[in-house]
Amino acid sequence: MECVLVTGASGYLGLHCVAKLLAQGYLVKGTVRSLSREAEIRESLSKANINHENLSLLEADLADDAGWKDATDNCDYVLHVASPFFIGEPKDPEHWINLASDGTLRVLRAASAAGVKKVVLTSSCGAITESTSKAESFSENNWTDPALARVSTYFKSKTMAELAAWAFVSSAGENSKMALTVINPSMIVGPSLSDDLGVSNDIIKRMIDGSTPVTIALHFGYVDVRDVAEAHVLAMQNDHSDGERLIVSEREMWLKDVAKLLRKNGYKKAPSIELPNFLTQLFGLFNAEARSTTKILGQKRITSANKAKNILAWSPRDIRNSILESARQITSLEKSN
């Protein structure tokens, strides 16, 4: 029976990856920063009717070398999902950028030393779409320029971590037979297996509870968390994905269209007004979170997933249904608390 390590196993995407692998009969190791999360993880899997007898959890932190040798020992594959995720601009950007890159290299070094066959790394469309180009459509051949002033710390961290991963594999050359595939998801939404709803779902939460009274002119691709987990497992299983970057995205939407979908389905507090760009920019002078978005206002970002569909036979679900599933879960959790 093959063994797969999933880093960040307690997270929104990581737990979906764990569930999918267990359902397919793999032995699964999962890293968490603290084993105090173990009961919560196992309870979440039980609620989803996933047998977790073949799951073992280990403590390992991206900021520390300890634990990674034990985590990768006897593993055939690694899904490196763990990464710092945040909205807005942190006080110490370099800390988060370095943590993402150094943590990725820790995992890759341990995986290579353990003889792992393949690592599938979670990156982001944010490592693709931010450049001096005026293009609206992007492919896996495009790279974000981390030196651009408008690039957020999060997008920078994902770009630098991915570049570090490709450089590591390239420098290893024939000394390592470990393959690398990178998954570049757009905005990930959809139902969570736990109470951790993921950062992207917070946008939906703030729309339906009325704490976001207006939308702004932001355009993103969206993809269901279950389909992102599926893409990771398919990439792991498919040698044709070796050495490839793969965008996974179902469709692009403006924030106002997300709000319109929610209103149409009974979420009356979802905003009906889009703030003019000049007012958004003015507000950004006084609010750090808003400031990080003002640099990309009104810009389309079309990220085709044709490559993933062709190589992996990946077929994502309609993201509009996923957004509504997220909204229902958020509402249900609020009623139960």
Automatic annotation (TrEMBL):
Pfam families: Epimerase. InterPro entries: Epimerase_deHydtase, NAD(P)_dehydrat-like. Signal peptide: none annotated. Residues 4-241 form the NAD-dependent epimerase/dehydratase domain. Keywords: Oxidoreductase. The keyword Transport does not apply. This is Aldehyde reductase. The lineage of its organism: Bacteria, Pseudomonadati, Pseudomonadota, Gammaproteobacteria, Cellvibrionales.
